[in-house]
């Protein structure tokens, strides 16, 4: 199994939208896919139609070692896609974990439980660089960074890259960055274009060629409890995520897929 953290400490940049739709696209390609919702807001869980009442075990229980991965993972409407949902409890986990042994590696040990028969695991991170995101970065083989093309995008990115370096030095030497994905791209907006050019100048091939356009269908889908890829698989946003999934698979080591 390859574990991919989807992180950016800025809120509203498209982490959850990317997590839901890239996970769905990978599942549709036949990869046994797990999505771990590590944001106390639980948007990935809601967006995949997991209502609050059915979240008996959650990523909180996983982190606090109160339940196993098998007990926490729920099937979704999408074949090959399971989710560990998030609950409100998770907002307390940052504090509760402080006094716990091995607090940065709780997610890693929970995911390494041998019962996990997944090919790929995505972790949808909260908008901060706290202990939850740190757990994701310690558990991950690699990181995917959604970046919204706006004025301060690059500044936020350099802070994230510094964190990644610190994690590589202190916690997870093997952590890679599989790519940066430009989100909410608006062709008609000249600033967006300019920022996209700057990001490509700065990061080169690290930036995925597939860009996610601003597309209202992507923002409508979660209120129906469906990935955009199911809600409207023909819309530009869905097509972009299918392209991104293809590009992502091309960047992953071939040997990682179990089946
Ligand atoms: P994050 O998880 O980084 O906070 P979200 O994925 O929740 O970001 O996106 C923030 C908001 O923007 C949500 O309302 C989402 O539906 C919307 N959104 C995300 N990506 C797009 C897009 N490409 N086009 C239009 N709306 C988008
Ligand atoms: Mg989110």
TrEMBL record:
* The protein's name: AAA family ATPase
- According to its UniProt entry, this protein's organism is Qipengyuania profundimaris
Domain named AAA: which ranges? 3-176
| Stored Pfam families | AAA_31
Reading the lineage from the top rank, the first entry is Bacteria
């Amino acid at each position: 199994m390859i574990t991919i953290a989807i992180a950016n400490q800025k809120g509203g940049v498209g982490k959850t939208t990317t997590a839901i739709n890239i996970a769905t696209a990978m599942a549709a390609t036949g990869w046994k896919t797990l999505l771990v919702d590590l944001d106390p807001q639980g948007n990935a869980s809601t967006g995949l139609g997991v209502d609050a009442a059915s979240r008996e075990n959650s990523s909180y229980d996983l982190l606090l070692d109160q339940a196993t991965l098998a007990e926490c993972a729920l099937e979704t409407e999408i074949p090959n896609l399971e989710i560990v949902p998030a609950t409100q409890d998770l907002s307390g986990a940052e504090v509760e974990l402080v006094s716990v042994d091995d607090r940065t590696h709780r997610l890693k040990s929970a995911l390494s439980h041998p019962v996990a028969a997944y090919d790929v695991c995505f972790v949808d991170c909260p908008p901060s660089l706290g202990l939850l995101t740190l757990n994701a970065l310690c558990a991950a083989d690699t990181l995917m960074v959604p970046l919204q093309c706006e004025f301060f995008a690059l500044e936020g990115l350099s802070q994230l890259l510094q964190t990644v370096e610190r994690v590589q030095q202190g916690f997870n030497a093997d952590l890679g960055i599989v790519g940066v994905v430009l989100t909410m791209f608006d062709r008609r907006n000249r600033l967006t274009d300019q920022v996209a050019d700057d990001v490509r100048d700065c990061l080169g091939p690290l930036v995925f060629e597939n860009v996610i356009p601003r597309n209202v269908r992507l923002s409508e889908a979660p209120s129906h409890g469906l990935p955009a890829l199911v809600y409207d698989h023909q819309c530009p946003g869905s097509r972009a995520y299918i392209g991104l999934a293809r590009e992502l698979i091309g960047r992953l080591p071939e040997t990682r897929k179990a089946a």
